[in-house]
Amino acid sequence: RVHGEIKNKLPILKNDEEKAKRKALFNQFDPNGNKILSLAEVDAGIKKVLNLEDVISKAPIDRAFHKAKSLNKDANKTKDSYIEFIEFRKFLYFLRQCFEYHVAFNRVDSSGDHRIQLEEFEAAWPQIKGWIQNASDPQETFKKIDKNGGV
Predict the structure, then answer these.
(1) Could you report how far apart the first and last alpha carbons of the chain are, in Å?
(2) Are 98 and 10 in contact (CB under 8 A)?
């Protein structure tokens, strides 16, 4: 239910209809009409415009915002702390992606300690192997993913 709700509220496709929805959404997120969005404005838009405050936490919003603004190499350096409409589709795309990663992580982290231990990984393996291409062995896959040895 939640995934579908988020999917419907984040117009990320490259077509005229979705672009029009993005433009309207961007304008709703931009209360002062200056054509740029700060992280605070994006956060407020997620809460007040999309009504997703209880669904999407601050971490995915922050990650998506910074990833989107880092992509526009031609951006005016005085606007480093903002995203423009040209970056907004990528922000929405990354927000959805970060949200999905966040949800997946929390499903696997059964202890709630913000780490995934091998035992949790193995217990969630039936679901995980559907997320990772060419994954056949949980222990081998865990070793590849666990870059810092559980630290």
Answers:
(1) 34
(2) no
